[in-house]
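Supplementary material to the annual report.
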Amino acid sequence: MSLDFIIYLIINTAFILLIAPLFAGLIRKVKAWTQGRQGPPVLQQYYNLAKLFRKEIIYSPHASWIMRATPLVNMAAIMVAALFVPLVFVPEPVGGIGNIILFLYLLALARFFMALAGLDAGSSFGGMGSSREMSIAAIIEPTTIIVFAALAIVFKSFNIFVMFASSAATGALTTPTIILIGISLFIILIVETSRIPVDNPETHLELTMIHEGMILEQTGRNLALMELSAAVKLTLLMALMINLIIPAGLAVTLTAAGIFIAAILFILKGSLLAVIIGLFESSMAKKRFFQLPSLFAMAFFFSTLIIIIEVFA
Amino acid sequence: MIILIFAILSALTLAGILLSRNHRQMNTVCIAQSVTFALMACWILLAGQLPVYRISIGSPYFFIDHLGLYEVLISTLIFTCAALYARGYVAGLLDSGELEKGSLRLFYIAWAVLLAVLVLAFFSDNLALFWIFAELTTIISAILVAILSARDNIDAAIKYIFIASTSMLFSFVGFIFLFETSRVVTGTGTLNWTELLLAAHAFPPIMATAAFVLVFIGFAAKSGIFPFHTWLPEAHAKAPSAVSAILSGVLLNVGIYGIIRTYAIVNQAGAGSTASFLLALFGVLTIGIAAFSMIPQKNLKKLIAFSSVENMGIILVGLAVATPVAIFWVLFHIMAHSLTKASLFFSAGILHRQYKSPLSSEAVDDIRDVFVYQPLAAWGIIIGGLAIIGMPPFPIFVSKVFIMLQLGTASPLVLGTVLVLLFIAAVAFGYFIITMFRKRSRPGRDTDLVPYRTPVSMKVPIIVLLFILLVAGIVFTTGEVSFIQSIITELKFT
Amino acid sequence: MIESAFVAGLVRVLFVCIIITAVYIISARNLLSIVSVYAVQSLTLVVIALLLYLLEGAPVLIAIAAITFASKVLIIPYFIATIQEKIRIKRDIQFHFLSPTSSLFVSMGLMLLVYIVLERVMAATGDRDNLFFFGAVLGISLMLMGMMVTFSRKRALTKILGFLSMENGVLLFGLFVTELPFIIEFLIVIDLIILVLLTTILTVGLDSTLEDYHKRLHRFHLWEDEVEVR
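Predicted assembly:
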């Protein structure tokens, strides 16, 4: 393991932890604006987390060790996954790090434990949330696999580092089909981070909540970990999109100036994407559960199309 | 020049319709248009040295050959009869309020434009131009279907437009294929049928086949071939009877005409066998579907419409055989079917006026005491029915026999299937007529019917058509035979 | 002269745009947005025609672009939007035979089929540019996708849009396969306009005197659902 890579690990982890709540807050702010509200400050997420970290943890009497382990497992899985997606600087890949399939399974692990924790507390809302989450996961699974397969075929590699490096080398769109991949990734992002039209992250309406239902029983520091991991997951998927579609400025060599510029650019691009997500969410209504497959079908369609094009042409 | 005269005549007709103040005048103008067109066609037949390739105006786009003229002769004859029939029939519709006064002018304008467009379509040399005119005939005839103030009619018209137009787009893609093929083969692309036929022997068979398949999809929908036949019974059953006669007698021919033209090219390109297979397959399927749909029919016009579907199937099967004799009888069958079907729809129209059956296709006809009230229409249906199921001495008998003989030499198995299906269709038709016409009023339980005084203008076309049919089935003049034979030589079927 | 590789790249990007619009038309439920997406799709075709002019230099392409712009970007969408406003149908949520999801899957299969068939057929016409071959495939696919809209929607207005999108597919195919004479393209547009006029008017009834118009609308059940909602 080279020095570059160790520096990458440190920079990437620190950077993502630092900026993750920013994007979540920004989306919330945009949605408030479109609804004609003032909305909480953009940095509200940071305050929330800081407050939550100081609060005590209360467990339900029914809760087992799963409840205690989940926030940690969840955070750990997401943080490992975070290592797989370079935000500002792409080093040479080492070992299995950056493997897109492993990345998927890390996300799945986090989700699995979250669903278990939802059941574990014995609250009925948690159970409903978990069951819905798992149904959606089952439906979106083939789509996600196909989208990532399309990515792998377009870039002829399973490694996210290699994908980013080649897109950074081109500077612009590698092939026009990347636009289609972008749409598919956007749909996956919406689904994975539980946003409208799949789920509404802002409500605790008992009949519709999915993600919020699962973490309803979490308190204090554990809740903070869950929230933070959700924000990190959002940032990860956003980074995946950004660095594939508009990779301009992504650093491939380790210089302080390069990384600084890349970080600034990333925050700008990320904010732009966050605004788009916010607008998208505001323009949609939450869909009924049984209408969701039509959304996934679109992603599936585009990715299969990409595979067809790339295989045949 | 000739095309220009047709165009000027149509313009005059339109002006006449716009100027005339009542139904009688509009109708007279339309009759005059059809008669002049028919006379023009006869004049071309007798005077001109066919085929006319060089028309002084519109030279590369239009031409007149035997096939086109043949179709125009049939169309103008039917249009003349239908216009005469409409004189009494449309007046009846106006009286009963089924057709609103405000729509009358639109009806006759569409009528006149439809005839003009049809003539232009049959005289187009350029296939793309033909496509556009064929497409226009769909749209204009849909106006004629939708003109009655009923929701069912608009539904039928919209269904007709969508099925026919969407399929016709496939035809256009097929023509683009042909154009590209001719560009590769001859250097300059052309869609002129005459040039395509000359160059066709050099076309790659796979391109020709692909083009034919696409063209076939479109024109099959236009002429009601399975699986695109669904619009046909509804549109025919719901349209006013004068329009049904045109739809069945003339517009179905447009589709068949397009198929014949393209088939001739494909045949030259040496891909005839694939195309034949396709034609035979869909022909048999069409006959089958029509025959089995005829069995449970309770509505006279719908039954007649399904019989049209059946006859289109026979024509396709005949085309598939592709020997000169078969093509000869296919062409003859086209004529015979058009005339018979027009007379049948005319008779059905009289019954419709008498019994006020709703135009909805699900409605069951309430026909009783038919020989008391409408003897002419009843006999018209019986004789027309005998003619359409192929009884001697009517022309369809002759054409069916010879097509089947030719089919027998090509494939006995298909022949057997087709014969069984034709038998089923004939039985269904006969059964319907027998049960329907034997019904009597039950005194006290049925309301009394007011006898409908059928105007002479509605009776004359039926008698004329049946007379022509009888003559055509018995007498074959050498002129007629040599005319159809020259069509076959022009199509280069040997 | 602009570098032709760059132009070809732009055309490819526009291909992707056309796919996206086609998918949108298949799956959207809001009528007005389908109309505007159709206009965008036509505009994309106009731009493709202009880019092809840069590549090939055939003046007929400019004429095609102009007529497409006038008819399909301006007149037809405007007309349909006006009619749509009059009959007050906003959403089309009824489907038969195929839901949008299954339409998407079917169209995927169709695209693959078109590709395979065209590859075999076009082999006969000699070596072709990759770009042009893709254009042809996309044209036919767009046509088939439009056809599925026509057959799976219940509202006549959406059916019309499906048909129009089919026609766009034919135009695209024509652009990339061969150069048709301008008069043909012109007549097709005329035909298209008549068809759109007729079908839209049919959907609201034949007469446009006002009381009669409303009476007819009721009789034809065209706005029943909306009335019930209010």
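Residues 183 and 299 of chain A are 7 Å apart (CA to CA).
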